[in-house]
# Entry
Amino acid sequence: MKFDLIIRGGKVVTATDLMSCEIGIREGRIVAMAENLDSGNADVIDAAGRWVTPGGVDGHCHLDQPSNDGSKAADDFLTGTRSAIAGGTTTVIPFAFQFRGKSLDAAVTDYHERASGKAMADYAFHLIVTDPTPDVIEREIPEMIRNGYPSFKMYMTYNAMKLNDRQILEVLAAARENQGMAMIHAENSDCISWLTDQLEKSGKIEPRYHAASRPSPVEREATHRAITLSELVDVPILIVHVSSREAVEEIRRAQGRGLRIYAETCPQYLFLTESDLDKPGFEGAKCVCSPPPRDKANQQVIWDGLRNGTFQVFSSDHAPTRFDDPAGKKLKGENSSFRWIPNGIPGIETRMPLLFSEGVMKGRIDIHTFVSLTATNPAKIYGLHPKKGSISVGSDADLIIWDHEKLVKISNNLLHHNVDYTPYEGMEIRGWPDTVISRGEVVFANSQVLAEEGRGRFVPGNLPAAALPINRTISVI
Ligand code: URP
Ligand code: ZN
Ligand code: ZN
# Structure
């Protein structure tokens, strides 16, 4: 058998298995795994003593996403995927945003134009549904799911995006009918707007009050409501960016009742706290995201949830807003209310190294859980598996060879995004991808991104088995 590339000597890790084997790659795919492969004329990479894991799948990031508030995403598909690759992520799933009054088709067409010719990593799209008209529900969602876009996000907050419960039910019913995966941003909009008004009335406008305007009960209530809507329709949902003990408890209770409720968390809920919003001057704006970072006790609950299976997915929620920029965090100036600070923080490159270092290397989670959370599960839940997220014969040869000894002091200078800060500046971690391979091509080695602009390909999603109903609740559909 002929190969283009062989990875030799590594400890090959999947979501379930650890194998000492060689990986044979031809035309971008894994075609053989065995104790010894005949290298012939193939290139050989020596991975002796190193873990080899699937390339990461970042199931939640925002790249070149148009905004409603005048802010501008600092990362397009070029800089965003360049940064992703340098941190071990070989597939990204950002969001095609439906503007109200416009179709889903317009969102997807526009988003393909933004990605094509630029992306260095492979990509799929989620949709953001903001305007579920009868045509969107009856025609567009079924078409989108069939045509490779099986997942879509709904917001319970943000005026320009939020859906009411009735609208969410309509979209969930369409998801059930067509095997789509619904993602929900769960925060209670009216609570946030009332709390924001109260805080502003008493002059509390600094970035730290962003956290006070969205306390845990706001997330808990919306999480509970989203689960109720999902149960009524009998369709799975995935709750994105879960931050708090109270939301985790709702999710765990629902999972314990046998409901298919999936959950995602992100680095900011493990490594930041609300005190990061309470820095001198406007610095706290760097960590304004929603839901907000909580406290150390909540961080521990999130770690527990990663270990005990409450969470299936660990994403970056990379939202590339520059700090020192009138199109970024300083959109309305440094003295404006927290209300106007664009939400979201960067993290597409640090997602995997942070969890590898603080999770695997410190013994909080095992390497298989790491692989599940960062690659295999998002690929499965969004219909990309086994092409993505796996090391198996027939899968795309997307691989990371880890340097588990490497000590890195995180600094924005080291990162490849186009954002002017990282919330993790100065943090010291152990472990970073040594070599990253995408469809058989070495795209990162010797701390250099080697990928060509535009080499990334669109990967259409299949119908996710994870989106099937459980057929046992009170659905009338
Ligand atoms: O604050 C956040 N998470 N911003 C990004 C948009 C979103 O809600 O995912
Ligand atoms: Zn969100
Ligand atoms: Zn997001």
